[in-house]
From TrEMBL:
It comes from Hucho hucho. It comes from the Eukaryota. PANTHER family: VON WILLEBRAND FACTOR A DOMAIN-CONTAINING PROTEIN 5A (PTHR45737). This is VIT domain-containing protein.
Length: 168
């Protein structure tokens, strides 16, 4: 499996936005692996059947900045392929970073894994644990930076660190 995938990646034109659709069919005895860092194109992967390796399918899509789909049992393939095709035909939100600005004495621990890519219609939730106490300032903010269609974007949200009153 490595040689066909490497051939596809080596054929990618650096001037063009390329997408690779990877359809992998596995039986329970198949344990193929791809090497991290070998994916220069957005890679959309499909795992077909109960024996498809979720780690491999998800890993290929994650490493390639694409999307993974699993087709099992009575699932219809067409809607899942069409969704991935819609994702491939539009710019994706990439280079996502999150920065917390909180007063001295307060710390933020991210609880969500980093988000690498978002496609139109997808949602993302970021969870974080805020701990500590601030003697003065009761305001904080979170800044999310990303690129969309090669244009940098920045959004900032301010929030209060003051506990809400219990209205009972």
């Amino acid at each position: 499996m490595i040689l066909p995938v490497q051939f596809c990646f080596n054929s990618v034109s650096p001037q063009a936005q390329e997408n690779l659709f990877d359809i992998l069919v596995f039986d329970n005895n198949n344990n193929n692996k791809l090497f991290p860092g070998c994916v220069p194109a957005r890679c959309f992967s499909f795992g077909i059947g109960e024996g498809a390796s979720s780690a491999l399918i998800s890993g290929v899509a994650k490493q390639g900045g694409g999307h993974a789909q699993f087709i099992t049992g009575q699932d219809r393939m067409q809607p899942k392929v069409m969704q991935s095709l819609r994702f491939a035909l539009q710019p994706a939100v990439v280079d996502i970073s999150v920065k917390w600005n909180v007063p001295k004495g307060v710390s933020v621990t991210p609880l969500s894994p980093p988000i690498r890519v978002l496609f139109q219609g997808q949602r993302a939730l970021l969870y974080a644990q805020v701990t500590g106490e601030s003697l003065g300032d009761t305001e904080g903010s979170v800044t999310v930076k990303y690129s969309l269609a090669k244009q940098p974007v920045e959004n900032q949200l301010s929030f209060s660190l003051k506990p809400a009153e219990d209205t009972g």
